[in-house]
Amino acid sequence: MNHHSYVAMVESGYLYRFQCLEAFIDTIGFYFHLIMFS
């Protein structure tokens, strides 16, 4: 495995985790609004 593909794999892994975290926060925010404004 050469260095460039390793870096790309790591970067895509971090990007994937960041997107999951963002979706998780969006979901919490959505439910929070439902509870607060219901």
Automatic annotation (TrEMBL):
| Official protein name in the record | Uncharacterized protein
